[in-house]
Design goal:
alpha+beta; about 60% helix; two-stranded antiparallel sheet
């Protein structure tokens, strides 16, 4: 990563990076946020009732015959 760090009073204050690298960082942060939301949703739905694939196929075939 090609960055420049600007210091103020000897402390790191700002970072400058090329725009394309900024976009990559932003995309990674978006992906991370989406992953966190997915994990949160998965945890919230952990106790939700489920059915197996075969049961779903049977249910759908019964509905389509009506």
């Amino acid at each position: 990563m090609n960055i420049q760090i600007i210091k103020k009073n000897g402390k790191k204050e700002y970072v400058i990076l090329p725009y394309d690298e900024f976009l990559k960082v932003q995309e990674e942060l978006d992906d991370y946020e989406n992953l966190c939301c997915l994990r949160e949703s998965k945890k919230a739905e952990q106790q939700a009732p489920t059915i197996g694939f075969e049961e779903l196929k049977n249910e759908l075939s019964i509905r389509s015959k009506k």
